Amino acid sequence: MNRIIIVGGGVIGLLTAHELASAGQNVTLFERGETGRESSWAGGGIVSPLFPWRYLDSVTALASWSQAVYPALCADLAAHTGVDPEYTGNGLILIAPDEADEAQRWATQHRHTLSLIDRDTFHRLEPQAADPADAALWMPNVGQVRNPRLVRALRQRIWQLGVEVRTGDAVTGLLINGDRCQGVRSTSGALEGDAVVVCAGAWSAQVLADYAAPPAIHPIRGQMLLFKASPGTITRMVLESSRYVIPRRDGRTLFGSTIEDVGFDKRTTEAAREELYSIATQRFPILRQFPVEAHWAGLRPSSPAGVPFIGRHPQFANLFINAGHFRNGIVLGPASAHLVADLVLDRHPILDPASYSWTAARG
Known about the structure:
- It is built from 9 helices and 17 strands.
- By secondary structure, the protein is of the alpha/beta class.
- It folds into 3 domains: 222 residues, FAD/NAD(P)-binding domain (3-Layer(bba) Sandwich); 50 residues, no CATH class; 85 residues, D-Amino Acid Oxidase, subunit A, domain 2 (D-Amino Acid Oxidase, Chain A, domain 2), CATH 3.30.9.
- It has an 8-stranded mixed sheet with strand order 4-5-3-12-13-14-11-15, sandwiched between helices.
- Strand 16 and strand 17 form a beta hairpin.
């Protein structure tokens, strides 16, 4: 191919550009704002779906593939760019006592390490938890990345690989001729290409709204807090009722997040800040000793059952999508990028693409 155009510069677009450029392709990436500054920047960076047994096997397949490659991917990015995404395998404690049997069946089926732990073991793993639950679940092999550093490393690496990145250049339409998509129109003009991959996150449905079968992707706001804690204050990731704590290597500790269906409104609210602060400090009283350094919101690209759209448009042979990852863009990203590149380049796919196709049943 002569040129592949990617629409969207979040972690999914950046990983897709990285995969295609690494395969020797000429890639141009359009981003309406700055690369990686939307949902990719705002999320927590857990390299696992939250309560992974609640998802369809198609999501688990993407997550498992990505989890296997993440340590090497981050090491490679750090070696080439000097920006360390800080992959850290500090494990995840999940509080869902009524789901222990289901979780263990899922772990056995998919060969993931998961064990039931008692209150004493919980306290040993994470001493700062105020009320260690009995019969919690422990996944010691779950890691995290510092997602802002990941997107910075990817941005630097794709530049090294020759990708042209056009930031502040919103795609306003597609160049359609018969059954082919010949390129895009953007605020800077028109650009033709041999294939177009839409990776625009929560905005993907808008890009494709004028064509058959627009994907069922819409934004869901999530708000987060960041405590400026000391290194080692909290050591494990802990998840309970869709609220999680994530300690970084330097001590900074994330707590989130809300799930709000408010359209494209990215404003933070005082009500959410107070709610998150209250829950965080009740579960981890030591956090009261540290200031809240930041409070932000991001728009997640929700999709039915959380299954992303990865595949070829049913009407236009050279138009593809890689979007709709909801809360799991970080963990599903490497596999999703590899799979869509397989389809664009007509390679043997790493996974059966049928479950992620444009028109596949979800849920």
